[in-house]
Specification:
This protein has 335 residues and is an alpha/beta fold. It has a domain of 222 residues: Aminopeptidase. It is 36% helix and 13% strand. The strands form three sheets. The protein has a six-stranded mixed beta sheet, with helices on both faces. It has a two-stranded antiparallel ribbon with strand order 2-3. Strands 7-8 form a two-stranded antiparallel ribbon. A hairpin with a 4-residue loop joins β2 and β3. α7 crosses α12 and α9 runs antiparallel to α12. The termini are far apart. Bound molecules: zinc ion.
């Protein structure tokens, strides 16, 4: 899409969910590896797998190229001017079933999610780019005023973040419904733009959701790889009061991060989160206005060609949905 040619920079300034702070120096790579090694189980296994020439899908080995891009994000967040395009109609592609059985509970009666409500928030909207005036309108997020929504990013070949998020949302919905959960989407390509970030939060609140996950993919620089889960920070200002959801959201996020890493074989971000795959933010309306446990997940970096190869794979997206689903299921069983 035109987006790819018009904004080749390593960061997508239109994405409010981009890296909140500058990347770390390559000198910190040993620290990254050391921290990553502290994460037991799946991540360690992944590192071994990676060292043996596995999928090449991780970020912990990345050198962190392209210094100097972060300030552009910090100085001009979410201008929403770039079009991620992507009118593709495959957002409703049927969910693959090849791996679905892996999530089936051993005893479905005992582990049923009957009566539990999960809201899935597919980030952005396939046609936001046609409604720039509407999505640039500022809304109150309690701590600030921020754009209603943004177009999101895309891969260099034009696969839009909005297509990605909706596809993963459909796969995730199917997996959770198999477990008996009631699942709602904040948008399902059924509206011209948005919803605005404040409405996205209120949809989860009104549904009295037991858990909400907002799905995204990042627009960072080449060489910046891996996923991260964004947790709400404690804010209490205006309509925002996250104090009651900080702890359960952290539990939810940690479970999703662990299961996502294991299910997809990818490692935590090598550019934010210090190798933990967890980042806390206080500037996102979708989190600030939530009154129910909620996290965002940035599943990978669409602007890195290796991550993009994963994000554009239906089989990988099924694994991503599987990992997110398992984290949510674990959270609901423990809460
Ligand atoms: Zn996004």
């Amino acid at each position: 899409m035109s987006y790819a040619g018009s904004n080749p920079g390593p960061f997508d300034p239109s994405d409010p969910f981009g890296p909140p702070r500058p990347r770390r120096s390559p000198l910190r790579r040993p620290l990254t590896v050391a921290l990553a090694a502290l994460v037991p189980g799946a991540l360690l296994g992944w590192l071994v797998y990676e060292a043996l020439g596995g999928t090449g899908s991780g970020g912990a080995n990345g050198p962190g190229a392209g210094a100097g891009a972060a300030p552009s994000v910090l100085s001009s967040p979410a201008n929403g001017a770039d079009s991620a395009g992507g009118a593709g109609g495959d957002g409703k592609t049927g969910v693959g079933t090849s791996t679905a059985s892996a999530s089936a509970p051993a005893g479905s009666g005992a582990t049923s999610l009957q009566g539990r409500v999960v809201v899935i928030d597919p980030g952005h909207n396939l046609t936001n780019y046609r409604h720039t005036t509407d999505i640039n309108r500022k809304v109150d997020i309690g701590t600030n005023r921020k754009e209603c929504d943004t177009t999101g990013t895309s891969t260099n070949s034009g696969y839009s973040e909005a297509e990605f998020t909706l596809d993963v949302a459909h796969r995730l919905r199917a997996l959770l419904q198999q477990q008996g959960a009631t699942v709602r989407l904040t948008q399902d390509a059924d509206r011209p733009y948005g919803p605005c970030v404040d409405e996205r939060a209120r949809i989860g609140n009104a549904a009295h959701a037991d858990a909400v996950v907002s799905i995204h993919a990042d627009g960072a620089g080449a060489g910046q790889r891996g996923f991260h889960v964004i947790l709400p920070g404690a804010v209490h200002e205006g309509a925002a009061d996250t104090r009651a959801i900080v702890a359960p959201s952290k539990d939810l996020g940690k479970l999703i991060a662990g299961d996502f890493s294991r299910a997809t074989g990818t490692s935590p971000s090598n550019y934010v989160g210090d190798g933990t795959g967890l980042v806390t933010r206080e500037d996102l309306g979708g989190l600030n206005l939530s009154t129910v446990p909620k996290v965002f997940i940035e599943c990978g970096n669409m602007r890195d060609t290796k991550d993009a190869a994963l994000l554009t794979s239906g089989a990988w997206r099924q694994k991503a949905a599987q990992g997110i689903s398992e984290g949510i299921v674990s959270f609901l069983h423990g809460s």
